[in-house]
Design goal:
With 327 residues, the chain is of the alpha/beta class. The chain has two domains: 225 residues, Spore Coat Polysaccharide Biosynthesis Protein SpsA, Chain A (Alpha-Beta Complex), CATH 3.90.550; 85 residues. The chain is built from twelve helices and nine strands. A nine-stranded mixed sheet has the order 2-4-3-1-5-8-7-9-6, sandwiched between helices.
Length: 327
């Protein structure tokens, strides 16, 4: 069990953009956590975050940062339903700008990040904090993000998501970062390495994680620190995600301070990576036990071909002056 005292107070930061229905599910899960008084039925008043008073009998707060959602979403009203949650607003587009707003307002010495469309397990905070404080010189704990489908039978988009989305352990091992749908860190680490890069529309979590690694901190993947996330199930949803990821990759790897030659060479490598046929992925798909039968094993590589074509076109658009889609 993690130490439950004022020096282990946790601030959970949740950015949201036009997603009130799923935010409510997320907050229901956060209100039922095993860590702290809120999950044990304590009563407090939810409300606005500016100047908010933290109930120090509780062990965590949830800061929901509205990233300029439509007024019809009534995000502040949803937040007010939950005693553990407070509302903040960030007008600068992008989830990393919203997270930075939450960090600036956080009262905890431990920061936990998840997204409005995630459903944390009841022991999510408890286990995330435990790993963080028990691991020597730890600067980042990344948990598992479990995908779930709408129904019993997954469509091709959901199947593709099931084998490609949120590979937290691989991201941490290979790129020294992880998706902020499930990340824990200390506020002191954030102070040392700096906030998220608000200019990035995607992959700002990877860029931040790399700074944590470069500062000499240990990074840990914890499979039992879990949140659930709905798999995307339409081409439109996957198209939006692909545009966002392509923009994040472009912005992270092609920087203004690079020479023209460096920027062009990096762009060429990125484009070739998208356009080379995914033979190795197709072989892996046919060996993947999560995919059943020839139909599933053959359709998933075809979805990847489409994704890579969309990604290549988007990177070319950005190369010639296009504006990234918001994250």
């Amino acid at each position: 069990m993690p130490k439950r005292s004022d020096d282990r107070f946790v601030s959970v930061i949740v950015p949201v953009f036009n997603d009130a229905a799923r935010l409510r599910l997320c907050l229901q899960a956060l209100a039922a956590q095993t860590y702290g008084a809120y999950g044990e039925g304590a009563q407090a008043e939810g409300g606005q975050v500016e100047g908010h008073q933290v109930d120090r009998k509780a062990d965590y707060e949830v800061i929901v940062v509205d990233n300029a959602s439509a007024a019809s979403e009534n995000i502040s009203d949803v937040v007010a339903e939950f005693p553990c949650a407070v509302y903040a607003y960030e007008s600068l587009p992008g989830s990393y700008a919203a997270r930075n707003r939450g960090v600036a307002l956080a009262k905890g010495d431990i920061l936990a990040f998840t997204d409005a469309d995630c459903i944390p397990a009841k022991d999510w905070i408890e286990k995330g904090v435990s790993y963080l404080i028990k691991s020597p010189h730890c600067g980042l704990v990344a948990g598992q993000i479990k995908l779930f489908f709408r129904g019993a039978k997954a469509n091709p988009i959901e199947l593709y998501e099931s084998v490609t989305a949120f590979p937290q352990q691989r991201l941490l091992e290979q790129q020294k970062g992880a998706a902020t749908a499930n990340v824990f860190t200390f506020s002191s680490v954030m102070d040392e390495v700096g906030p998220f890069n608000a200019e990035l529309r995607s992959q700002g979590d990877l860029e931040w994680g790399q700074r944590v690694f470069a500062a000499g901190y240990q990074q840990l993947y914890a499979a039992d620190v879990c949140v659930s996330h709905p798999a995307r199930y339409t081409l439109q949803q996957l198209h939006h995600r692909t545009l966002r990821l392509a923009g994040g990759s472009f912005g992270r790897l092609i920087r203004p301070e690079q020479s023209v030659l460096q920027r062009n060479w990096t762009f060429t490598k990125m484009l070739l990576a998208d356009l080379i046929p995914p033979v190795n992925f197709a072989i892996s798909a046919f060996r993947d036990d999560r995919l059943r039968g020839f139909g599933q094993k053959s359709v998933v590589p075809l979805v990847l071909v489409w994704v890579r074509c969309v990604s290549a076109v988007e990177k070319a658009r950005l190369k010639f002056g296009g504006v990234p889609h918001r994250g």
